[in-house]
């Protein structure tokens, strides 16, 4: 059974940092692109950052450029999202996603201004 379990969300002041973790199990980590989506209240879910564990290539949305960084640890089957310089507009539920339509349960990130 494929499982993605996120952790690391919380409440932080604007300008602060958080690191999200996504622990994956039930599949070969290196075979799937994996990344993070987010959904803010009243908005559609959007892709934020993804990584291909096979070659380390990444892709992200412009609004997080220079502030967020994705990384992965194949030995731990875990992908991370380091979020610095957080803004109120980053407030959302963040979901871990793996190619094949696998989703985590989500973790809330709230940025207070």
Describe the structure.
The structure is a single chain. By secondary structure, the protein is mostly beta strands. Helices cover 0% and strands 52% of the residues. It has no helices and eleven strands. The chain is globular, with a radius of gyration of 13 Å. It starts with a strand and ends with a strand.
> What is the CA-CA span between the terminal residues?
40 Å
Estimated radius of gyration: 13 Å
SSE string:
EEEEEEEEEEE
- Uncertain parts: none
Tally the beta strands: 11
- Main beta sheet strand tally, sense and closure: 7 strands, mixed
Overall geometric form = globular
Helix content: under 10%
Structural class: mainly beta
Mean pLDDT: 93
Give the DSSP E fraction (strand runs of 2 or more residues). Answer: over 45%
Supply the number of helical segments: 0
Which tags fit this structure?
113 residues, seven-stranded mixed sheet
Summarize the structure.
With 113 residues, the protein is mainly β. The protein has strands at 3-7, 10-13, 18-25, 34-39, 46-51, 58-60, 68-73, 78-83, 92-98, 102-103, 107-112.
Secondary-structure topology with pairs:
Layout: E1 3-7, E2 10-13, E3 18-25, E4 34-39, E5 46-51, E6 58-60, E7 68-73, E8 78-83, E9 92-98, E10 102-103, E11 107-112
Parallel strand pairs: 2-11
Antiparallel strand pairs: 1-3, 3-8, 4-5, 4-9, 5-6, 7-8, 9-10, 9-11
């Amino acid at each position: 059974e494929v499982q993605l379990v996120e952790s690391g969300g919380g409440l932080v002041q604007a300008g602060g940092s958080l690191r999200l973790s996504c622990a994956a199990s039930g599949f070969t980590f290196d075979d799937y692109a994996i990344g993070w989506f987010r959904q803010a209240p009243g908005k559609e879910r959007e892709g934020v950052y993804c990584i291909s564990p096979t070659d380390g290539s990444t892709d992200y949305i412009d609004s997080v450029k220079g502030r967020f960084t994705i990384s992965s640890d194949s030995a731990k089957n875990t992908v991370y999202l380091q979020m610095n310089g957080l803004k109120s507009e980053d407030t959302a539920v963040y979901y871990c996603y793996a190619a094949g339509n696998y989703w985590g349960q989500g973790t809330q990130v709230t940025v207070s201004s």
